[in-house]
Model the fold of this input.
Amino acid sequence: MTAELISVGTEILMGNIVNTNAQYLAAQCAGLGLSMYHQTVVGDNEERLAGAVRTAFGRADVVILSGGLGPTEDDLTRETCAKVLEMPLEPDEHTKERIREYFKNSTMGEIPGNNWRQAMVPHGAIVLDNENGTAPGLILEKDGKCAILLPGPPNELIPMFEEKVIPYLQRKQPELLISQMVKICGVGESKVESELLDLIDAQTNPTIATYAKVGEVHLRVTARAANPEEGEKLLRPVVKEIRRRFGTAVYTTREDETLEMAVVRLLKKYELTVTTAESCTGGMLAARIVNVPGASEVFRQGFVTYSNKAKRRLLDVNKSTLKKYGAVSKETVKEMATGGVFASDADACVAVTGIAGPDSEEDKPVGLVYIGCCMKDKVEVEKYQFKGNRQKVREQAVVKGLDLLRRCILESCAK
Amino acid sequence: MTAELISVGTEILMGNIVNTNAQYLAAQCAGLGLSMYHQTVVGDNEERLAGAVRTAFGRADVVILSGGLGPTEDDLTRETCAKVLEMPLEPDEHTKERIREYFKNSTMGEIPGNNWRQAMVPHGAIVLDNENGTAPGLILEKDGKCAILLPGPPNELIPMFEEKVIPYLQRKQPELLISQMVKICGVGESKVESELLDLIDAQTNPTIATYAKVGEVHLRVTARAANPEEGEKLLRPVVKEIRRRFGTAVYTTREDETLEMAVVRLLKKYELTVTTAESCTGGMLAARIVNVPGASEVFRQGFVTYSNKAKRRLLDVNKSTLKKYGAVSKETVKEMATGGVFASDADACVAVTGIAGPDSEEDKPVGLVYIGCCMKDKVEVEKYQFKGNRQKVREQAVVKGLDLLRRCILESCAK
Done:
């Protein structure tokens, strides 16, 4: 089965945004075993959009459109697809009701008249409820093919694709693709690839695909099989071998588990609480932990100590330490971590201090970051020299902080 | 003049990489005043690539191809374009010499035989020397149109485009596009559009385009003109009228200024410091402020008080307030904000408490968020009911927190 993407939006043609939806959708289609030969971007223009839809529908089985489902005059995807596929628009009571509910539960006031356009649905279309916005997704089936219309904002598109489109496509695709995720932290992508080279070179079924994330590498092991049991049987030995090669660097094999979720799971398992003491990451590490539903069981408070004075006052870092070694030093991060435990009564504290840039400080280079973890009267400190801009340095520091905490828990508890 | 992009690479179709080249090239073309109506991605397949080139050449004046100029069998862009535009390949001595030089100055050793393919140039083509790799860029002119072939790696493509392609295109394009950004916070997208409907309906030059972000709407006003001065003159009255209609909801007209940058700019201007007291946002608000280089001047510390105990201990919130009204209440956020100022000696404190979900708490609905800002002995409190998942609720809360701080500063200082 072949799939094709059409991204709709003048902001993409103008270069105002990076088309991350296309990458997401392409990777998902690849994971589902769909072949993709074309991707297209068109603007908010009916004639050109209609042309793109006709062309794509002529050559692919599944055409996925993203964007242009909003309430404004510019948003033409629904109307244009309805016209090209000859499925006239009609009002959908269910969607109307959902829009009414959406506005009732928000502070956005009156429903603007143009929002009702979003309740017009092509005759016979499958409606995909949008849990994070007002524009429903739509599946238009015709001549054994289908067009899948998705809203443009990634926080609407991604959940809709994962909850509603994947199950739909899996039903259409006769051979099953069963996959298993293996998530690795603390090992670089090229290192992971070279460690797996023999497996990757020899692969036919299952296959291994690698995806690099900030500070992480995700491996998707995918098997083609007639049924789930056969798929599982094909996957098991490969996943076991990967686990053997990477040991505790594998932090999860659960599809939906993020690094912070794995950390919170471990904290809960060993009944530990944690606090954070952040300088250059300025709250990002705490925010990642609080990202996890139910984090309140293990995380009660965090400290953002950006200035030296705050480090002294909130974490009791010694004035002389700051003076002698500087705020970005092994000594300071150590005192931040122990001070955080003391100030919060938590079982552990992760501390981060570094130079995020753009300017270097204390004669130290941009990207230099110290991370400390205090747990059970022991403090582990790691020094990193990250590459990239301010945001990227901080993101990497957060991942390394979470991973250090994870390794400290495993080391002191999982024996 | 119209331009069109063709990105060549199976890795894009598979979703292995984000197509950042397309964004870069699109933004560059927009800046040069070229109109872009289509972008296409095709894989390393001669037939489909030839089809894409033919289609693009049929409808655009400038076709920019990126990728597929490498030395391997997969790399077909040069050969395919030569065939489609009927400009037969011939060896180019100058490029041969450059490849020889490139290898001589590197540690890569012997020149692999297939590298010589890169020295084959379509008859009559303009060769663009590659300062960062072996594949030269090529401009193929035909029938008043042109195809511009660029190497895929961004560190080769970007310098080549800026040094060689921009001057070439500027010679071809007589008219300039000048644009001005207007960023609005606290007004929904459809409200913004309906307020501007008369301007948008009447627009010819300049034009207004709207882009929705989380909690924000960005407007781009674009004029076509013979020179920058004329462009500015066309933009000025439109931007002034937008400012008149939205007042202080316009937080910036600077292209690169984010909401947090605008807030930090105002804090610096009025010599104020700020702290944060966060519950459901768990450090995200502090992290957004620390995002801004130089934030240390105005932000010294922040509190993440996720548990009630932490709210009491760090911010001195009354036990009875928490008991009587709950942690998610007007009363608690008020005490968090005043407590934050007191605990930190900052001039202002933004406090956030809410139910991010997935589960409701204290019999209060998911998405209910109170935001408070204490400044100069006055506390402003706002109540919101946000939609969406945990992450989206928190992102919206952060934007509203930054915006409340901004409005409080303007109200108390800008008079």
